[in-house]
Amino acid sequence: FSPSLASRPPSRLRPAGGLGSFAAKMPAVSKGDGMRGLAVFISDIRNCKSKEAEIKRINKELGYLFISVLVNSNTSRNPTFMGLALHCIANVGSREMAEAFAGEIPKILVAGDTMDSVKQSAALCLLRLYRTSPDLVPMGDWTSRVVHLLNDQHLGVVTAATSLITTLAQKNPDEFKTSVSLAVSRLSRIVTSASTDLQDYTYYFVPAPWLSVKLLRLLQCYPPPDPSARGRLTECLETILNKAQEPPKSKKVQHSNAKNAVLFEAISLIIHHDSEPNLLVRACNQLGQFLQHRETNLRYLALESMCTLASSEFSHEAVKTHIETVINALKTERDVSVRQRAVDLLYAMCDRSNAQQIVAEMLNYLETADYSIREEIVLKVAILAEKYAVDYTWYVDTILNLIRIAGDYVSEEVWYRVIQIVINRDDVQGYAAKTVFEALQAPACHENLVKVGGYILGEFGNLIAGDPRSSPLIQFNLLHSKFHLCSVPTRALLLSTYIKFVNLFPEIKTTIQDVLRSDSQLKNADVELQQRAVEYLRLSTIASTDILATVLEEMPPFPERESSILAKLKKKKGPNTVTDLEETKKERNSDMNGSTEATLVNSTPSPSADLLGLGAAPVTNSFPPPSSSGSLLVDVFSDTSANPASLAPGSEDNFARFVCKNNGVLFENQLLQIGLKSEFRQNLGRMFIFYGNKTSTQFLNFSPTLICSEDLQSNILSFDPTVEGGAQVQQIVNIECISDFMEAPVLNIQFRYGGALQNVSVKLPITLNKFFQPTEMGSQDFFQRWKQLSSPQQEMQNIFKANHPLDTEITKAKIIGFGTALLEDVDPNPANFVGAGIIHTKSSQIGCLMRLEPNLQAQMYRLTLRTSKETVSRRLCELLSEQF
Amino acid sequence: MIKFFLMVNKQGQTRLSRYYEYMDLHKRTILETEVIKQCLSRSKEQCSFIEYKDFKLVYRQYAALFIVVGINETENEMAVYELIHNFVEVLDKYFSRVSELDVSFLFNQLMKSSCCLRWACNGFKVVPYFDLAVGS
Predict the structure, then answer these.
(1) pLDDT of A604-633, one tens digit each?
(2) Distance from CA of A168 to the nearest CA of B (A)
(3) A261 closest CB neighbour out of B49, B78, B126
(4) CB neighbours of A74 closer than 8 A, spacing ≥ 6?
(5) Which among A81, A316, A535, A638 counts the fewest CB atoms within 10 Å?
(6) pTM of this prediction?
């Protein structure tokens, strides 16, 4: 006699419920009973210390149960029990199940004597276990046998096998590549009506539609097959496409739905292979027909499919022909998901020819779009506008429109970008200033517009100050009228604009100072605003005009860096981002089986740093605009190979360019950009070196050193050795020319990036001609001095082939940039160029005369330099010869 | 991959739910209410595919009952759409003109013994696109 367990209190305090309490309610089992296993089980459960332990114990028990059913005795190979066991394993699908069974189930799957229904369950069970624990399912001999299941007569088996292979092939493509030809032949047998394969499984006159879809999906795991199978596959796909055109065998909607399911999957496969232009165009036409179908489902699916089609080179043009239909869909569709697909398709089919039209339509749509999708549309419009802008005034207009229509959804990345672009391109600065000024006149404008407007007017307000309608005072009042309506960050930005105005427009200095001086600024509750007001006020009071001008100088151009807009869009949409032609091409070129890695794209060299300087040496050369702005949008993965200590490649070319100009980008590699801005006066010079960190990781121990000859003295001012990712830092070098020198100094930079030591060396373009002072003189004076410098040591002549096309204006500009005065009407031959100047060094001043004679027919030049010092003549001749 | 299979009526009562990936119980109820809300607000001109969070819903209405299937990007939407119909046809044949009551009371018993379900379907020579019991 044993007391009932129910009256015994539980062995430990535990919340009620769960198997523990169930176990407590079981009748007492004495040791003598046959149900020994049960007794052990129950006592184990009751001894468990936690719920997790309970669950583990239960799973273990289930595991033993299943093993006995599946594996052990012969009698247990009852298909019903095996099926049940497999189902239970799959439903639990935990890691413990996978550990126990992942080795066993493949064997059951491929064993000859397994019943069909069990095979089906085994395949699905294995699939489930693989999904939860892919690492526990080992590949082996069974894989080739599984592939043969594709030929099985039992529909359940072949369907399950197809699903299994499709998932496994993602990560182990080689193991299953034999499945391709089998899948093609099976599909072919099903689809061609002549065959009797799986004839019983017709759904409303469509043969085995779901299996067909699965087979087509399986084929999308692999590239186009070998020629032997390819012909068959093409035939098959053509049959499917043909059937879509034939009159339907049944009026029932189920028939057309099933047929279309297969059709869409076939089109998906055609797009994925992207190799048969004929099929692609047919697919495009078919989808084009669906775009105007009665049924919304079909229109939706057609728009979606066409998006992927748009990125194929073969069919891109064909897709573009449907642009009007798509735009119409955007305007008239009642379903927001369908409209979204239309937007995605417009984005995908956009290229230079239709960019303006598409951006205009998207802006139109934006005015009435759902709030949930606005941000995405804003990002897309911003990307398209930047990518396809031929005329940057259009770009500026588009972004300002974006802000006007959907200001709340214009994220920081977008308006930062427009400012970056305006600053980097001087041809659009005036236009931008005018446009923001006009836009700000609107009675209610979005805060983002105030930010952009404030920044742009602060930098370029001077470009429109001449017009009485946008005089400095009007600009200031306009901005200040919005001040109180703005949030703290915007107000901070506006305060900076005000102090920039003090520099640009001294006439309104007192007005601005009054504003800064007011209590609401100086005693503002926000620390940042208060600090700015106080500091700016003080700055405006004590700084001299020169210092103020230096401090508030125009911002230098931003180094070209990855655009964060595309990154943000990808993050928003996840891995299914619809991308346009270029992006998809790169993704295609990567690993076929799904892992996408953006490939390396070299960014084009950035435009010169033309700054409206402080009246220093004039910048006479204009620079070619950046060749393609596509590179602005692509993430650049940095390559961390250390540069050798020898001179960086390409620096020679850049160096030569700097002989006749003072500002620009000296050097660029994937990590670092070095820009220069210099000014010289007599024998002194000052150079600003800008280092831009192009990566997102900081540079540590950043230490530049300058090596120069004795005749050139330099004083390099030190700075913070850490350069943050994406930051640009400035270094000032003061130079004094002691005596004439031949060698250019070398700038050597060492820093740590990502744990590796980097070393960059470039020649710094401080050349003798920088210390030129141009000297005007008349013809008589010139020839007089020319005769005086007639001894052979004083003259240096060079006859050379022209490296650039002979152009008078450019040549004149270069000569002036070189530093001499260009003398007109001196040489009897008007085609010749004559120059004169004085080189200033600390020790002496050297007069120089120059004559350049071009020979248009022979594309050659003769250059003659006469100075009082041989070395100077030689050096100047050398330098100048390279320029032409 | 099919994430879940639901049969929910217009009042928001779930008659059948089958999840093929782990989801907390209370999250399930939230999901079901949201999903039915979305389906109820749709009109006839709208398509049967709803983009919901990071996956899609394919739904079909039969009288007062909505059948909603959640799928990810690896599934063909139209195929799943027809699958729902196929499923309903099978139920119809099995129960002889199936109604919501059948689904609530008798179907759950069936679901528990999945072998029977497959057998039932096999009997009509239209095998489902996927095995409801395991879901793939």
Answers:
(1) 322 332 222 222 333 333 333 333 333 332
(2) 13
(3) B78
(4) none
(5) A535
(6) 0.62
